[in-house]
Amino acid sequence: MPSSVMPTSMQEDGHPSPAALSATGLRKSYGDKTVLDGIDLHIPAGSVFALLGPNGAGKTTTVQILSTLISADAGQAQVAGHDLATAPQAVRAAIGVTGQFSAVDGLITGEENMLLMADLHRLSKAEGRRVTAELLARFDLTDAAGRPASTYSGGMKRRLDIAMTLVGSPRVIFLDEPTTGLDPRSRHNMWGIIRELVSDGVTVFLTTQYLEEADELADRIAVLNNGKIAAEGTADELKRLIPGGHVRLRFTDPAAYRSAAAALSETTRDDESLALHIPSDGTQRELRSILDWLDAAGVEADELTVHTPDLDDVFFALTGGTVPGQPNQTKEDAR
Q1: Which residue, among 261, 263, 265, 250, has the nearest Cα to 296 in the 3D structure?
Q2: Do domains 21-104+152-239 and 246-307 have the same CATH topology?
Q3: Fold of the CATH domain 21-104+152-239
Q4: Do 98 and 175 touch, CB atoms closer than 8 A?
Q5: pTM score, whole prediction
Q6: Which of 71, 189, 182 is nearest to 141 (CA)?
Q7: In the sheet that 203-207 helps form, which strands lie side by side, from edge to edge?
Q8: Is the pLDDT of residue 167 over 70?
Q9: pLDDT tens digits for 60-80?
């Protein structure tokens, strides 16, 4: 899969639809260390884009640049229709940022955190209270609204953090490893929240150390390595990049199994389970070819399953490093 800019989606009138976020040639160095080496991005509105990469690959730096926290050394970017360099205030007004390090103040209540955020967005007192009540209800925090946020569980704090981010009705949200440290149930709850945001038309830029999370949520995924986009595509497209995919045919009739094994080339036999493994990238064309061959040979398989490499395999092959999210993997604390 090429790492070039994703094709622009088209409107009904045939003109390119504006991206929620686009970037060309973003570069960033610290001293003699190049962190970003000219990356390109194009993210349609109302989608989830996941940026994966080993520790120090530049994921957090990318988020910091696109959210106006730091400046790029070179390149151009537009977020929510606003140029990053010439209209940073407009960008800030259109985005929300949350991550593994919560902005929640534990010394005040959940409701007070929300009202403080409403004041920062210069909402009127009445509007601030209305928005606060709606978001606390949406994120199932109404009952806990009067308690100090320090008493909240990790999942509750993360929900409150996102609720605070939504006070300003952002159209683009940067979630920098939002589920790090959460238990599996809280992670799945967070996935549901992200899906709801996207269904409302919000665009989500996600960095994560959990490959399952990217596979589950992202419309498109980019793998960042050594400051460059090593590959970009859907999860299925990325998985097809890696050798090891195969189609498994299982038989209950030993005679049919032997006939298929004798006729098919480049197969791996499993005589104990009467199964054949045929190298395949899982495309529709290859599956149709296998089915046509079975029909022509009069051989009937009792089971056909497609096996493709998972994102762990993709990540390891593209970066040559440890798969993120494993016990021996530290959280990203470098740019």
Answers
A1: 263
A2: no
A3: Rossmann fold (3.40.50)
A4: yes
A5: 0.74
A6: 189
A7: 95-99, 172-176, 203-207, 48-52, 220-225, 228-233
A8: yes
A9: 899 999 999 999 999 999 999
